[in-house]
């Protein structure tokens, strides 16, 4: 699980190229120490989560395997 972020004001945030452009997107930033930040694109000054490399790899692997798909 990620932790709430500290100061991420210098982070370079981006949306996935698979984003449809709707308002229901997350943004991601590559951070120091191979960490990854994730935030709600509708609230860029709100809280973000920061994941270590292992947790991020586990999460993206689960997404690719469809583990979060709803029926």
What does this structure look like?
This protein has one helix spanning 53-64; strands spanning 3-4, 26-30, 36-40, 48-51. By secondary structure, it is an alpha+beta fold. It has a domain at 24-65. The radius of gyration is 12 Å and the shape is globular.
Order of helices and strands: EEEEH
Give me the secondary-structure category: alpha+beta
CA-based shape: globular
Q: Which bin fits the share of residues in helices?
A: 10-25%
User: Roughly what is the average pLDDT, rounded to an integer?
Assistant: 85
Going across the major beta sheet, what is the strand order?
1-4-3-2
Give the beta-strand count: 4
N- and C-termini, Cα separation: 24 Å
Low-confidence residue ranges: none
Number of helices: 1
SS strand fraction:
15-25%
Largest sheet: 4 strands, antiparallel
Radius of gyration of CA atoms, rounded to a whole number:
12 Å
Task: Lay out the secondary structure.
Elements: E1 3-4, E2 26-30, E3 36-40, E4 48-51, H1 53-64
Antiparallel strand pairs: 1-4, 2-3, 3-4
